[in-house]
Write a structure and sequence with these properties.
The two termini are 108 Å apart. The relative contact order is 0.05. By secondary structure, the chain is of the alpha+beta class. It is elongated. The protein has a 7-stranded antiparallel beta sheet, covered by helices on one side. Strands 13-22-15-16-17-18 form a 6-stranded antiparallel beta sheet, with no helix packed on it. It is 38% helix and 17% strand.
């Protein structure tokens, strides 16, 4: 029996009515086999009595008896299937939260391997087997397991959503394409999915490029942070060195001051000690003579008294101390001279610092030229756009929204909206000038008050030696030297505008904490000619890096 069963297949023991392994199989007169219950129900519904397979008609209802041989074979196949299902169930995974469970499992739900779009159910490996073996079920469409299979059915016609309307961009069933989407561009879901997959591939490639760009940006930022840390470490080291040197200078000056004062005090004490020693010696001699005179005056030896009197009566060999005194040393000016000397030392250190700072900002030098479309009509610009001066005579030139019409100003052509930039301008032999940077939206018409609030960060010269930072209120600047060349440095992100005396390597003034949101332009005003007293031009000079 077991050898024979190995040659038989499960399909040979399936009831053609229930499509399952026989239960109480019976054989009817034409020779076909069915489950007793299945054929009985079939004949109860259909008359005359007919074979579901060959359509043979039986005018008298056949007497049904169980086929023992087929029943035993079916029982063995059923047991084998159950054992296989039990073994398979132990190997299969139990459905976890978020996974699609098998709809046919009772009790513990196993993880579904496939979903059937015809049966609208999901099956584990065991319950999926009929779809893989039975000819009627093999034609069903299987997909990877999904939840809510009912959502794949048309709610209007209860048909599978298997078409896509390109016109309305929606999934439809076959009846929808005829009734509500007639004349529209309707294609199978698979065809539309192929196009969408191609589009997704293209979009994914773009996404990968975006990811790569952002990774590169991250690397760029990391490098910037590393460079910033190196710069910070270098500045900290330089700062520590400078302040250590300054501290040593202060301590050395203080020690020298203390030594000077103490030396004067020691000399005074030494002089006083010498005088006191000499006075004490004289006192000792005088006391000795006084004692001898007292003793002699009490003597009864007249001869001895008269013989000794001449030596005791004469003035002792002493010094005239009337004009002798100890004058305390004068300390006036000692501290002042020490501080002045320290100031000179600090000034040298400060000069070195500013020279180093100027050298750093000069590396951001940019090449700029003057913009004739912004120049006031009385201004004269050189052909190379590097010089500007006041010409007294107002030229006839086209009106321009960007041109200054009242104040004798001009902007550079080049603008800056990020990073750092530096430029140097010669102001030699001028008695008045304005210089700095301005934002793009600065007022070009009428009288203009220069201030950061109005979009200008400038310094100016008035009356030969009156320097000011055009803040609100303005700040008077005390400069040791009249600058002949002024450096202008801007750090856009830091919000910093600094001005330098290039030749003296000294900081003139800094605007800090600025908030830049627009393009910035270098700003120039040679001011009025003043009868020839202020005829020298402002000259944009090439940057010669300080040594």
């Amino acid at each position: 029996m077991s050898a024979a069963s190995c040659l038989l297949t499960e399909d040979q023991f399936l009831c053609s009515i229930c499509l399952d392994v026989f239960t109480d199989p019976v054989t009817i007169p034409c020779g076909h086999n069915f489950c007793k219950t299945c054929i009985t129900k079939h004949w109860d519904i259909n008359a005359p009595y007919k074979c579901p397979n060959c359509n043979d008609i039986f005018y008298t209802k056949p007497k049904l008896q169980v086929n023992r041989f087929i029943s035993e074979m079916a029982s063995q196949f059923r047991q084998s299937a159950q054992q296989k299902a039990s073994s398979s169930s132990s190997e299969q995974q139990v459905s976890k939260p978020g996974e699609v469970p098998c709809d046919d499992c009772t009790g513990t739900k196993l993880k579904a391997l496939k979903s059937c779009l015809v049966c609208l159910a999901s099956y584990c490996e065991t319950h999926l087997e009929p779809h893989l073996t039975k000819s009627g079920l093999k034609r069903h469409q299987l997909i990877d397991p999904v939840e809510n299979l009912e959502g794949r059915m048309c709610t209007k016609h209860d048909k599978l959503l298997e078409l896509f309307c390109k016109t309305d961009q929606m999934c439809v069933c076959m009846l929808c394409s005829i009734s509500h989407h007639q004349g529209h561009s309707v294609v199978p879901l698979k065809e539309e999915c192929e196009g969408k997959k191609a589009e997704l591939g293209k979009r994914d490639a773009e996404t990968q490029q975006m990811i790569q760009k952002r990774r590169l940006k991250i690397e760029e930022m990391k490098r910037s942070v590393q460079l910033s840390k190196k710069d910070a470490d270098r500045e900290i080291a330089a700062g520590v060195q400078v302040f250590r040197a300054l501290k040593e200078s202060v301590e050395r000056s203080q020690a020298e001051l203390m030594d000077t004062i103490k030396e004067k005090q020691r000399e005074t004490e030494k002089q006083a000690e010498g005088f006191i020693t000499e006075l004490e010696q004289e006192i000792s001699e005088l006391e000795k003579r006084s004692s001898e005179m007292k003793k002699l005056s009490q003597s009864e030896d007249h001869l001895h008294l008269l013989q000794s009197f001449p030596s005791l009566n004469s003035a002792p060999p002493t010094k005239d101390w009337t004009g002798v005194s100890i004058r305390p040393p004068s300390y006036e000016g000692t501290v002042v001279r020490a501080v002045n000397q320290l100031e000179e030392t600090l000034s040298k250190q400060m000069k070195k610092l500013f020279e180093a700072e100027l050298k750093r900002v000069q590396q951001y030098a940019v090449d700029v030229t003057l913009d004739p479309d912004t120049a006031h009509p009385k201004l004269i610009l050189s052909r190379d756009g590097k010089q500007v001066k006041h010409g007294d005579v107002k030229k006839k030139i086209p009106e321009n929204p960007g041109r200054f019409d009242k104040c004798v100003n001009v902007l550079a052509k080049q603008s800056f909206s990020s990073g750092r930039f530096y430029s140097e301008v010669q102001v030699k032999e001028k008695t008045k000038w304005d210089l700095g940077v301005a934002r793009e939206s600065i007022n070009r018409k009428g009288e203009i008050t220069a201030s950061p609030q109005n979009g200008q960060w400038t310094i100016c010269l008035r009356n030969k030696n009156e320097y000011k930072a055009c803040a609100d209120p303005s700040v008077c600047l005390s400069l040791k030297h009249q600058p002949e060349k002024v450096g202008v440095f801007v750090d856009y992100e830091e919000g910093l505008v600094s001005f330098y005396d290039v030749d003296a390597a000294a900081l003139i003034y800094s605007f800090t904490g600025c908030c830049f949101t627009q393009k910035l332009y270098l700003f120039f005003s040679p001011c009025v000619n003043d009868g020839g007293k202020n005829s020298a031009p402002l000259i944009i000079s090439p940057v010669s890096h300080t040594e």
